[in-house]
Amino acid sequence: MLEIIPDLPDHVLGLRATGTVTADDYAAVLVPELERMLAAHRRVRLLYVLADGFDSYTRGAAWEDAKVGMRHFTSFERAAVVTDVDWIETGVKAFGFVMPGDVRVFDRDDLDKARAWVSEPLSSGALEFELIEDEGILILAPRGPLEAGDFERMAGVLDPWLDDGHRLNGLVIDAEHFPGWDDLRGLMSHVRFVKDHQRRVRRVAFVSDDRLLHAVPSIAGRFVSAEVQSFAEEELDDAVTWVRQASAG
Fold it and tell me: Which is deepest, 48, 72, 76, 192, by most CB within 10 Å?
């Protein structure tokens, strides 16, 4: 059986599993509540508690779980799984890294910690960005190793604007040096962000004196449809002018 956990922030879906979880539980409880929340929030968080007395999933429930996961793969920015069931804990830890959001496992004794973690604000991260809507220019300024949350925050601003029919004339990346990623999840989020957005930007300008970043245009030009060009650190204004000119093309 699945039941909703009350008294959570409105962007956090709380579920408690007891006994045997069936496909009907997904259809009657999880799916309607998730779709209701996604109508109000672009991304949600999940607190999933396998309570004392949880027994198993039916085959139908396992299939529904897979379908929900595939359909809403990018809809969860955080998920806290609370369980003392060894095989579930092992599975989540083994495969959680492939999820776009942050996934953590907590023991049942740490339910309060799980609730607090899944409810807390995301880190402001190390990526500063500004979307100049009337010119269709996105300016990025990484100030440290990139985190998965950086791309979630940026997508939360950029995607609704793009969905309204706009297109990016240009992307300006102003970086003193290549910052790298905070962890594997940050790298994977970066790759997904580029894959999902690269066809929606016309020009990309790298502004840096870093040798590695200066080599990016010659490499990136083979994999993305946008024009890519590098500029020295003191040429930021020139880079903005260059991407702005894409609107005249």
Answer: 48
- Residue 176's pLDDT is 83
Q: Read off the pLDDT of residues 49-67 as tens digits, 9 standing for 90 and up.
A: 998 888 888 887 766 666 6
What global pTM score does this model have? 0.58
Identify whether residues 107 and 164 lie together within a single domain.
Answer: no
Q: Roughly what angle, to the nearest 10 degrees, separates helices 148-163 and 184-197? A: 20
| Domain closes at, from 119, 141, 157 | 119
Q: Which residues contact 21 (CB under 8 A, 6 or more apart)?
A: 1, 2, 54, 56, 57, 58, 61
pLDDT for 237:
93
Question: Are residues 159 and 220 located together in one domain of the fold?
Answer: yes
Same structural domain, 7 and 35: yes
Question: What pLDDT is recorded for position 8?
Answer: 93
What domain range is 95 assigned to?
Answer: 2-119
| 175 phi/psi in degrees, rounded to 5 | -135, 125
- Distance, in Å, from the CA atom of 196 to the CA atom of 176, rounded to the nearest integer, reads 26
Residues of the chain with pLDDT under 50: none
